[in-house]
Design a protein that fits this description.
The complex is a heterodimer.
Chain A: H1 11-22, H2 28-42, H3 51-73, H4 80-84, H5 116-119, H6 130-143, H7 145-158, H8 165-178, H9 182-195, H10 202-209
Chain B: H1 3-16, H2 24-44, H3 52-65, H4 77-97, H5 113-126, H6 130-141, H7 146-153, H8 157-179
Helix pairs in contact in B: 2-3, 2-4, 3-4, 5-8, 6-8, 7-8
Chain lengths: 215, 183
Amino acid sequence: MTDRDLTPLPDELRALFEAERASPIANEAHRAAIRAKLGATVGGATAFGGAAKVIALIVGVAIAGTAATWYLRDRDRAPAAAIATTIAPPRSVPPALTPPPPSRTEEPAPPRPPPPHARSRTMHAPAPTEASLLADAWRAADRDPERALALVAEATARYPDGALAEERDAIRIEALAAAHRDDEARAAAGIFLDRYPDSVHRPIAEAALRGEESP
Amino acid sequence: MTKSSARRQYEDVSESDRPPGPGLEAFDAVYEREFDYVWRTLGRLGVPPSDLADAAHEVFLVVFRRWKELDLDRGLRPWLFGVARRVAADARRKAANAPATSLDREPAAPDQPDHAERDLLWRALAELDEDRRVAVILHDLDGYTGAEIASMLDVPANTVHSRLRLARADLLAIVRRLRGGTR
């Protein structure tokens, strides 16, 4: 069977698809706001390492998500130009890029029931994002490692396939080392280095393998 | 080793042995070129409007982190679609766990007629079965052939065509229901 053997697309759907493709995204303000927050990470990309970059990355996600949500809710009133002034000028387009295929395509796990505090949230108190959980965990890893581990566990439960899994695993290693759970830290570090051999967080894992607290 | 000396050692490693940076100009170019595609794809994949910015940010964080692995000789979009699909799955799961508010599901404003049809389609797509949703997005909206989709998803071409047929039928019924008419 080829595509030509398919039943013709119903006119009603064809018109809807064409309207959707022609509809403006109308999110210049979002584009600028997200790029500005990415700048905290990407702008430091030439350093491409260091715990501060990790924190900037995680906090950047949290701030961007919150800011963009607020913007979206007020989009009819927000003057787009106020934010759009931060848009970087378009650059020349490089050759097409193709990363490796996605590592996972399986269906997501079924939704978990929210914890009690989430059920009783107010309109502006959404469930914590993966980024906000990990930002808190990273800050706690040094002085309160058990709390950091609890936050990492919560992030794992809420976002098992989260985009920040690599950061999550690095924070767990740091917290285990800070809690003097050296055997667990070493085991986690070995797994981490196998899984992310080119990670920017590699020094954290290597320190744990040497039996040191994270740098 | 003390904590402070460990930190100095870490900083030394990160500064001297770091991998080459991705190049801001190249990253910016990809960001500018693909932002609309990512945004639209996330909307098609059922990410609630209030979560779109967060989800788009996550996709580009993944792009940044995987930058070194990108193959410069092939197209980026099939991979971007896969990343968006996983981020969208997380966003949908989060939205399903959170109590809906009137603002979360706000319909298109009356003075945004251009968005009305788009929002209708995105709401209808959100109700589709995941496999069927992916088939109709890739074929009917992104323009991939059945054979290309089969290769991307690693499934037989006949499976793609079957999903597409069922997706169109389901989608038509959902759209008509959402329009409030029976036609």
